[in-house]
Amino acid sequence: MIAIVDYDAGNIRSVENALNSLGLENVVTDDAALIRGADRVILPGVGAFGDAMKKLLDRGLTDVIREVAATKPFLGICLGLQLLFEESEEAPGVEGLGILPGKIVRIPEGGGRKIPHIGWNDLSMPKESPLFAGVPAGSYVYFVHSYYLQAGEISDVAATTEYGVTIHAAVQRGSLCACQFHPEKSGDVGMKILMNFAGIQ
């Protein structure tokens, strides 16, 4: 059973639909006991960093997320990746979950780049990661974001992409994984990534 953490953020239903299409049993919940009891956990999200942290705090979910991220396969998606880190320029003074070292910064203006960055970008993979098993380097995935990760430990970075700067597009440390892009909206490549996550031990 995969628990999808419900904290009233965008893209929760699209993740649920993707898992259903793959035949992966899942539940959308904000119940701490259900989240703790799941085999693996997904933290999705589209929205603002500060607002999302407030919702997690209001629902009493910060401690359980820290707990399960340390003890079972865990996947953050988009904003769900950003919340795992220490802070974001989007919300000065708001502490993130601090599960991994690093900060979230705004994509720089200029060079004809549109912000938010919306669209398909190819991935480079600086290390082997079970999340990307069977996914060729150069595969395209779908992004929607104005802020991006600068990981504090380069050894955590499992995939990068270029959009005026080098964006740390995915991280993996043990069974803790996260993607800035949306696997649930990334076609066959994204479905492969979700199936890979379902097989991580």
Descriptive report:
This protein is 26% helix and 29% strand. It has helices spanning 12-21, 32-37, 49-58, 62-71, 79-82, 187-199, and strands at 2-5, 26-29, 40-43, 74-77, 87-88, 102-106, 117-122, 140-145, 147-151, 157-162, 166-173, 176-179. It has a single domain (2-199), classed as Class I glutamine amidotransferase (GATase) domain (Rossmann fold, 3-Layer(aba) Sandwich). The chain has 201 residues and is α/β, with parallel strands linked by helices. β11 (166-173) and β12 form a beta hairpin. The chain has a seven-stranded mixed β-sheet with strand order 2-1-3-4-12-11-10, with helices on both faces. It has a three-stranded mixed β-sheet with strand order 5-6-9, with no helix packed on it. The two termini are 13 Å apart. The chain contains six helices and twelve strands. The model has no long low-confidence stretch (mean pLDDT 96).
Tags for this model:
globular; 12 strands; 7-stranded mixed beta sheet; 201 residues; alpha/beta
Short description:
The protein is α/β, with parallel strands linked by helices and 201 residues long. It is built from six helices and twelve strands.
